[in-house]
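Box 3.1 A note on notation
Throughout this textbook, protein chains are presented in two layers. The first layer is the amino acid sequence; the second is a token string describing backbone geometry. Keep the layers aligned when reading.
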Amino acid sequence: MSTPSPRFHVGPNSDEASQILEAIDRWLKREVEPQVMQLEHDDVWPAEMVEQMKELGLFGATISPEYGGLGLSAQLYARIVSRISETWMSLTGIFNSHLIMALLVERYGSAELKKKYLPKFASGEIRGGLALTEPNAGTDLQAIRMRAHRQGDEYVLNGTKTWISNGIRGSCFAVLTKTDSEAQPRHKGMSMFLCEKGPGFSVSRKLEKIGYKGIDSAELVMQDYRVPAGNLIGEEGRGFHQAVGGLELGRINVASRGVGIAAAALAESVKYAQQRQTFGKPICEHQAIQLKLGEMATRLEAARLLVKNAAEIYDRGERCDMEAGMAKYFATEAAFENAHEAMRIHGGYGYSKEFAVERLYRDAPLLCIGEGTNEMQRIIIAKQLVQRNKI
């Protein structure tokens, strides 16, 4: 059986990959680290950093060079996301949701749609995201209520989307709708549209969060919003499958964020445990702290390997929903547990805004919820396991 052709142009171990990672590291050290604490606490959208990310090509990271993107492998993309998340996870959300939108257009859109939008997506001239979740539909996407009906050469959309990343600053979104509310099974009546903000498309409110600051999360409302029929991504009735397909890379991204948070929590803990002394010696010499550090390091390495495995399978062009689910589930739980242990190792200082672990402790829980809850990931893993091993 032949192996499917790779879906990328820059491999994970190439010289170009090393140059990209070095450039990311220099940028994080010079531009992000000195400002992250203040921007995070003020919940300020990092306008200057967004411009720098455009220059680094991050808004075109996984878009094909044919359309002006970098064409990075999922493995390299995952490593970039992990490194940025170690410094400030919010930045990865600004380009990840955008790239999932671009992925859907590149994978399923018409030639005209690709030609019109992908170069502008790759440059960051047009930025946006994925609009799936609704007030009464999160994990159960088939329960969405947003409707789209055709009128001549246009579709008219009505409904509300919520928890949409880049909802305020973004201008273009891949929007999941119902085009046939009577279809059975339900997913056959769902379609995806590429929608630019305009008359009938508004932001109703910014959603306040305990963590994941800097990136805007918003509620979007469409009221008799008209979109050209040519902005239908693929065919009517295929929207659910397109959304699920895009979530494979999305879950690899969230898992990579988990690796970054887990790594940052460990690094901060090792550093602090060598500096802080109790009973006449550094706390890293106390067995209770050593047990915590040992568990944290092992969780991190296991999470990193699960993400690497899922990304490798994705890069081969093979189905990886089970592996992406495993990576997402384990890596995000590792982030949550490591952040919790880091706070305990820091003691009272871990509860202070002057230390990075406070931010990690607030950011980590989101990862267990976003891109499908970890409860759902375990169900997906089990179903795929049974399906692949039918007797």
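The longest strand covers residues 154-165. The chain is about 50% helix and 15% strand.
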